[in-house]
Amino acid sequence: MAAFINVSNRLPVTLGATLAKSSGGLVAALEELQSATPFTWIGWPGQAADDARPEEIEASLKKQFGYVPVFLSADEVAAYYHGFSNASLWPLLHSFPDRMRYEEKWWTAYREVNRRFADKIVAAAGKDETIWVHDYHLLLVPAEVRARRPDLRIGFFLHTPFPSSELFRCHPRRRELLEGLLGADQIGFHTYGYLRHFKSTLLRILGLESEMDYTAHAGRKVFTSVYPIGINADKFAAELARPGFQRLRNEVRGQYGNQRLVLSVERLDYTKGLDRRLQAIDLFLANCPEKGRVAFVLICVPSREEIPAYQELLATIESQVGQINGRHATVGHTPLHFLHRPIDFGELCALYSISEVMLVTSLRDGMNLVAKEYAACQMEEPGVLLLSEFAGAAEELVNALIVNPYNIEEVAGRLREALNMPAAERRFRMLQMQNRVRRFDARYWAERFLADLRARVLPPENAPAFAPAELKDIMARFAASRRRAIFLDYDGTLRELQRRPEAAAPTPEIAALLERLAADPANAVFLISGRQAADLDAWFGGLPIGLIAEHGYSFRDAGQKEWKVFDPEADLSWKPRILDVFFNYEGTTPGSWVEEKHASLVWHFRGTDPEFGLTKARQLVSDLSEMTHNLPVTVRHGNKIVEVCSIQADKAMAVKKFIQENSFDLVICAGDDQTDEAMFHVEAANLIGIKVGAGDTAARYRVSSPQAFRALVEKLLAAGPGFSAA
Questions:
Q1: 17 pLDDT band (50/70/90 cuts)?
Q2: Could you tell me the pTM of the whole model?
């Protein structure tokens, strides 16, 4: 596998008198891969730049490890890392909105640091390089990198959970964070639940609908999938096979005599549910006749000690531990051993291997690799994993005893069940989990993610709107033509879609653009829209352009005031029947409304709950397909609308009429919606079709957005008679 650039908040180093590699979840996950595939790692070295020697450290990191540091000042560490990342994003991502804090200066620092990371990536990246960005500290980096280097393949993996849309929308910078993420080509999550929440959030906050494996955004496809992270299983197997391990295991076992061990290993964090776990232990001990034979080892690795909430948590846990030991200890037995310190790898493996029960009762956890590490270290007489249903690992390790950590009585009861489980059942459960942990390890996770990222065949949506040669060809054809017909859809093509249709009045920029386009005597400009004639008159009546209303039901020639109907014999007798159906859907779908036009009826659901609105729209289309099959209508499911329109009102027929009545040597049709596809199918050798936005299309060319289309029109205006494609 080829090398790549790996980007995370922290570099895997510890700064001291010398540089040393450090441990951590991501480090452990990538260390096996790095031994076979060296890659560049960009990140913060973990020391404030104003307290260190940046130039010296940078040179040493590059020489010893090939790492690229991003230095942060003490103020940036406080605002970007402790503030925005860990006091604002961390609690929200773990579904603790009451713990979320926000300060504008934190956001400013977060945005600036993400830009600095992007600068480092761009400087280090070669042509067509693969970039892998990790975690919530760097949510803005994908878009920042894409803005500078659209040629790079950018992957992003979120190591935390992703909360429901109702929670994520609490964040003051929700839109900017999502837009930042969508700069990636591929986004990975631990579980489908997190991915489902992410898609729902995109729909509710940005209005973006998602397909099975991608979301269309800004003319690109952003792929999304599930990649459960694993552990470096070979590292644990090597430690268990090490000659001195059995002696170490016996020494650790000897510290606890003949007591039955229940182990808990966590970072000190409120998401781990430590207070509730201690309540369950207290309840278990109160009802255990053999509590003198059971010892609990609670290891809490220090974490974010600078944050007041974590200082308070430590004080609470220490108080609970003291109270529990005060109630249940005897002269010869202490039931609860609390270790607030990092633990040596060998000692950790020994504790894993001798513990009869592993308690993992997180309130919310992205994955929880401790559960997998415990399974990897079980030996001849395996123990039992007691695992929270709110940890990502619960979706993989289904043979664990799954518990609701909020139910104290259930956790205590399951603990008794685990200690009394027959040996044969323990062996069966553990073997199933070990097979999965060893097969789908960290290397598998990393290689799968990178292979998928590199294998993405970027579709037209991911390509530039026009290749340079194509753009020159269109501009040359435009400049060479002497009589042009330009048919432009409005909403979603010239003008960005608005939540309420009346809010989409043309901006001065759009009005000026149309006026300049129509000022060229070679151009016959037509605005062809689904809007009613009165709307088009009000907004564009003063411009020297043709207006076509209701997708081709009526029209007004440039410079004229009278509107004409394309087909005066159009059958509109179906309207009352369909109107009743639309009113029923309006009444049962809050936020929706019905618009009645001369030749069509439109049910708008842009103001509804997006998922509910989409469900109702699909149901409405299904109902209409049955009742309209003998009626002279077309049913269209467009952008946040369902429309029933007379078959005599059709954009293709309107375009054909004007083409047949005039001698145009170039025809340009531009649109964004299903209703515009008919124009692209018009048979004319000199027709150029331009699709605005994502989605399947018959048009040959595509631009990403109304803004990009307006920029294209500006280029065409510049392609005057003197233009040369050379």
A1: low
A2: 0.82
